[in-house]
Amino acid sequence: MPTSYLIQEYSNTACDLSITTLVHALVSMCVDYCNSVLAAAPKTTTDKLQHVLNAAARVVSNTYKFDLGLSSLIHDELHWLDVPDCVAFKLIVTVHRCLNGRAPNYLSNHVIPVSAIVSR
Description:
Blueprint: H1 3-11, H2 16-32, H3 35-39, H4 43-61, H5 70-77, H6 83-99, H7 105-108
């Protein structure tokens, strides 16, 4: 069964907070998967994921496709980032963890601060 069908069926019986949590978990999983690949992806690829994010926001808020204010709803009420911003944020957090020794060794070994390079 498609995920959208499951969400629609579940939305008829569940409370709003449960639906919001379910949709956010499914969408963030989709956006968070392979952030390093999405960082260099063309805008057409991230636009497809942004359409999924917008559809999820419409499901959560019970709004229609052409209702105004979807952008403010996503940012102000749901506190979701746009897809390119989310990808950049995840990569920045990963690099920060690598530089501060909070990431796994297989990542930390490949991140070197520019100030540590002798030839610079």
